[in-house]
Structure formats: C-alpha cells, structure tokens
Amino acid sequence: QVHVRESGGGLVQAGGSLKLSCTASYDYSIDMGWFRQAPGKEREWLAGIGARGILLELEDSVKGRFAISRDSIRTNTVYLQLNDLKPEDTATYYCAAYSSGVREYVYWGQGTQVIVSS
To answer: Which end of the chain is more exposed for a tag (fewer CB within 10 A), N or C?
Structure first.
C-alpha cells in the first residue's frame, strides 16, 4: 500500500503564491501527479512528473503559472508551485501516485484546500 499525503494549502489573495508538497511512501521512485477539484466541478489533471524527474507535463491552462518539481529521483516528494493565483484556482488539490501496472493514478492523498480571495 502506498500512502500519499499533501500539505501547503491555505488562503491567499489573488496574485499570490503557494507551494504545495506531497510525499508518497514507496521504496522506489514513481511517477506522480497533481489534480484539483473545484466545488461543483469534476476533478481535473494539472501536472505530472516522471519517476526520474525528467518528464514534466502541465495542463495548458496553468502553464506559465504553475510548476511541478520533485526533490530527487530517490524520494517521492513532489511539489506544485502555484503563482499568480486567481479566484478560479480555488479548489481542493490532490496528489496521486501512478501505477505502471494498471497505467493509472491509483494512490491518492486526502487533498489540501486552496482558497484564493479576490
């Protein structure tokens, strides 16, 4: 079982920044991703990072404002830097670990809430 935990959410004014952190308990480096779910909306994928930290992907709508990174290939600690936040970024942000066996994100954290005030 892989345990995933996020932290770093909070209340911030529009234009501000936050850095979310996520740690997955696993003996080997794995692909990880960030998602968010706003009230009344479906969960959406935001960013993914490969086990070696080389492959980075960002959803088009957040490119230029958000950035994903990881500590090193030896740990499963990843970050999501949120810059120039807008009220529409208000959501619960989730981190997930990818299973290459089933080819999907199967291990999820509880989420961390981000509230952006105008």
So the answer is: N
